[in-house]
Design a protein that fits this description.
Shape: globular
Mean pLDDT: 79
Number of strands: 0
Order of helices and strands: HHHHHHHHHHHHHHHHHHHHH
Structural class: mainly alpha
CATH class: Mainly Alpha
CATH superfamily: MFS general substrate transporter like domains
CATH topology: Growth Hormone, Chain: A
């Protein structure tokens, strides 16, 4: 019955696939919005809870905790994603859980007093550790949902879509993620502008009491939508084959690709899974190490971490007030969004490797210009903004979308599920390290941060040019065969 219903959406073999892609992209938007709210609330939340001094640089410590708690949730979610998928019986049911957790996190973050026994809002008249801990718990729950979906949603899409459309459709997940970040910054800008008026008329309490609550609750609406529509998703056919459910996999491929195409893919899959396990063991580890290296570079170039503290960084670099820094930050995110749109359009035309190279070179150029302008003591607004624009454009072309598309498709079928979980866990862990370290480094020595990011960018360029093959229009099975052939050639040469 379900398959018959789904066939109603099929038009020339791809309409149903596009519908599935849009549904999965909703999780990308929620991920982006959730992470974007960190930047919009880290200062106001830290100010709301009058927690007293926690040793030296206590405010940096509080800010780090506010940012780190959801990222810790991301680490745990990515780590346990494979277990959750198995426990619930597939990616589909795991994503239903993700939507539910987002709803719980949104409601709890809006009204964290609920865990402390208060049914009404608490005003910031005195420090409130209980309410602060409650808020961090709900934010960690939301981060857990982000971690699970950051593994399963792009993996789901990678396994569903055909080779010639995989780059575009999987990058759509990251496009929606950046769109979510942009929406968070727009909401933050509007809330701040609105509540600044109230602040002038009344007091600062109104600004910090209501704005962050509204930002947190907004994610509940796409989460409810996700919860309502995720039931139409089919199980991943490659996942079904690995679980021995060949007939169900054939039916899903038939639904997605039609008779001729599905038979061809099934044949390639069976040939792939019948290949030597010894060969997989020899090259699979090397591919995993390569993916970990790419994830390391992605995080230590600093994009995610910079997003969390962006209004503060912009204010420092441009010497603007809080409202203007938020507005400039929003413009920078718009540039990032436009760049991901360009990547979405051209990734299957130009390929992954050229986009990775161009993106990282733009990042390197942004660091060089930033160093030149800062050493020259230039305080012209536009000259300080140009390096940031180049940085956001460069990373959006390379690290924000292309890098993750590449990681998900180069892993062999047999280890893709566990491999993606491992890589995302390490990626969020690298991000957590940056979150805990960056506020303290930024307050003490900004040059160390720039040096670390520049060195990491150079490493990313070297890895991309020397080690990464082009995977444009290759099926997942052809990519696996490529690594196997490459490994055999090395053995024969030795």
């Amino acid at each position: 019955m379900k398959n018959k219903l789904a066939k109603l959406f099929v038009f020339e073999g791809y309409a149903y696939m596009y519908i599935l892609t849009i549904i999965l992209c909703i999780t990308g938007m929620m991920n982006g919005y959730f992470l974007g709210t960190i930047a919009g609330t880290e200062q106001t939340v830290a100010s709301f809870f009058k927690l007293g001094e926690i040793g030296e640089n206590y405010m940096e410590t509080v800010h780090s905790i506010v940012v780190a708690s959801p990222i810790l949730g991301c680490c745990l979610g990515a780590l346990l994603s494979t277990f959750i998928r198995r426990w619930l019986g597939g990616k589909k049911f795991a994503l239903i859980l993700v939507a539910f957790l987002f709803i719980v996190s949104a409601i709890g973050s809006y009204h964290p007093e609920i865990l402390t026994g208060h049914l009404h809002r608490v005003t910031p008249e005195e420090s409130n550790w209980g309410m602060f801990i409650s808020l961090m718990i709900f934010r960690t729950i939301g981060g857990f949902a982000v971690g699970v979906s950051s593994v399963l949603s792009p993996l789901y899409m990678t396994e569903l879509v055909p080779a010639e459309k995989r780059g575009k459709l999987v990058s759509a997940f990251y496009l929606f993620k950046v769109l979510g970040i942009m929406f968070a910054f727009i909401v933050n800008s509007l809330l701040f502008k609105y509540h600044t008026v109230i602040y002038l008329l009344q007091d600062y309490t109104t600004l910090i009491d209501t704005g962050w609550r509204h930002m947190f609750i907004a994610i509940a609406f796409p989460a409810i939508l996700m919860f309502a529509v995720v039931f139409v998703l089919p199980h991943s056919p490659r996942e079904l084959i690995l679980d021995g459910k060949i007939k169900e996999a054939k039916n899903t491929f038939l639904l997605l690709y039609g008779t001729t195409r599905s038979q061809k893919i099934m044949g390639e899959l069976q040939q792939s899974f019948n290949s030597s396990r010894a060969s997989l063991f020899s090259y699979g580890k090397k591919v995993l190490i390569l993916c970990v290296g790419m994830a390391f570079c992605q995080q230590f170039i600093g994009f995610n971490t910079i997003i969390y503290f962006l209004p503060r960084i912009v204010s420092d670099l441009t010497l603007t007030d809080t409202l203007n820094s938020i507005q400039i930050s929003t413009i920078l995110i718009m540039f990032a969004t436009l760049s991901v749109v360009i990547t979405f359009i051209y990734i299957d035309k130009f390929g992954r490797k050229p986009l990775l190279i161009v993106g990282t070179l733009l990042i390197l150029l942004s660091f060089v210009l930033l160093l030149v302008f800062r050493l020259s003591d230039v305080n012209i607004l536009i000259l300080n903004i140009i390096p940031m624009i180049l940085y956001f454009v460069g990373f959006s072309i390379s690290g924000a979308s292309t890098c993750m598309v590449y990681i998900y498709e180069i892993l062999p079928n047999e280890i893709r599920r566990s491999g993606c979980s491992l890589i995302q866990t390490l990626s969020w862990t690298f991000n957590l390290i940056m979150v805990m370290v960056l506020p303290h480094l930024y307050s003490d020595n900004k040059w160390i941060i720039i040096i670390i990011m520049t060195a990491t960018t150079l490493l990313a360029i070297i890895i991309t040019i020397t080690l990464l093959p082009e995977t444009k229009r290759m099926t997942l099975e052809e990519i696996g065969e490529f690594w196997s052939i490459r490994e055999n050639k090395k053995k024969n040469y030795q």
